[in-house]
Design goal:
Order of helices and strands: EHEEEEEHEHHHEEEHEEHHH
Largest sheet: 5 strands, antiparallel
Radius of gyration: 19 Å
Number of strands: 12
Strand order of the largest sheet: 10-9-8-11-12
Structural class: alpha/beta
Shape: globular
Strand content: 25-35%
Number of helices: 9
C-alpha cells in the first residue's frame, strides 16, 4: 500500500481587520505548518449571483477554492462577512465555525433555548415576553466566572474572570461538571472554537456567555498558551485532504505545549 499523500492546505482567514494581531498570529502558525494562507477582507468581496454556481469575487477576479476558512470578524457588526462565510461554505470550504452556528450566537434567546433544551443551565428570567426580549439581550455579565477556551473537542485553557475581565489563570483542576458543560455547550451550538463563561450559583454551574471569537491574547497573557497552532491543528483534523501522521493531532500538540 502507498503512503497517503500530504499536501499544504489552502486556508482563508475571513476578517474585517487585516492588521489584527490575532489574524497575523494565526497566519504565522499556518505558514509554519507549511500551509498556504490568504487573508480576505470581507468588505472587499462580492457575492456572485450571475450563475447557479456559488462564487465570490475580489475586484474582477473570482476566488478559487479554499480547503478551510477561519472566520475572524465581529458577528454583531459585520452581517456581510457572515454572507461571505456562507458563500465560502457553499463553494466547498470547511469552516472552523459555520455561518449558521455564528448566526445563532447573534440571538441570545435562541442560545438559551438550545442550551436549556439540552439540560445546560443558563441564567436569566423564568419568563421572556415580547416586551422583555431586549432586556434579556442586554443583560450584564456576572461579577465572577470561569472562562474556558475550547478548540475542537478539547478544553485547552481556563482563566478567572471578574467584572468581565480576565484576572488570573485557573490553576486548580477543572471540575468534571464544568468540563461536561463546556463540551456539551460546544456540541449543542456546533462550534469548534469558542470561549465559555461558567458561573456557579447555589451549587449549580450556569453558562453565562459564549464567544465564538475568543480573545486569544487574553489566554496567552494569563496562561502562556499559544492557541494559534492548536487552531491550525484543528483545521488539519477537519480537512479530509490533509493526511495526519502520528503526533500531528490536536491532543499531541496540546501535550507538547504543556511539556515545554
Amino acid at each position: 500500500r502507498h503512503a497517503p499523500v500530504q499536501r499544504a492546505l489552502r486556508i482563508a482567514i475571513l476578517t474585517d481587520k487585516i492588521n489584527a494581531q490575532s489574524t497575523s498570529r494565526i497566519a504565522t502558525a499556518a505558514y509554519e505548518r507549511g500551509h498556504v494562507v490568504e487573508t480576505l477582507i470581507a468588505e472587499e468581496l462580492a457575492l456572485a449571483f450571475d450563475n447557479f454556481t456559488p462564487s465570490l469575487t475580489l475586484g474582477e477576479s473570482t476566488l478559487g477554492h479554499f480547503d478551510y476558512v477561519l472566520p475572524q470578524f465581529d458577528i454583531d457588526e459585520k452581517p456581510f462577512a457572515m454572507h461571505a462565510l456562507r458563500q465560502l461554505e457553499l463553494m466547498g470550504s470547511t469552516p472552523l465555525n459555520s455561518a449558521g452556528s455564528l448566526a445563532t450566537l447573534n440571538d441570545p434567546v435562541a442560545v438559551r433555548q438550545l442550551l436549556m433544551a439540552n439540560r445546560i443551565p443558563t441564567l436569566g428570567p423564568d419568563r421572556i415576553e415580547n416586551s422583555t426580549v431586549t432586556d434579556h439581550q442586554d443583560a450584564a455579565p456576572p461579577s465572577r466566572a470561569t472562562r474556558l477556551l475550547v478548540i475542537g473537542r478539547n478544553i485547552v485553557a481556563a482563566i478567572r474572570m471578574e467584572a468581565g475581565r480576565g484576572t488570573a489563570p485557573f490553576l486548580s483542576p477543572i471540575e468534571q461538571s464544568i468540563r461536561r458543560i463546556a463540551h456539551n455547550t460546544a456540541r449543542v451550538l456546533k462550534l469548534r472554537l469558542l470561549s465559555i463563561d461558567v458561573t456557579q450559583s447555589d451549587g449549580i454551574n450556569y453558562v453565562t456567555f459564549v464567544n465564538p471569537m475568543p480573545r486569544l491574547s487574553e489566554f496567552k497573557i494569563l496562561t502562556g498558551l499559544a492557541a494559534e497552532p492548536l487552531i491550525i491543528a484543528e483545521a488539519e483534523i477537519q480537512s479530509r485532504s490533509w493526511a495526519r501522521h502520528r503526533g500531528s493531532d490536536l491532543e499531541s500538540r496540546i501535550a507538547k505545549q504543556e511539556s515545554t
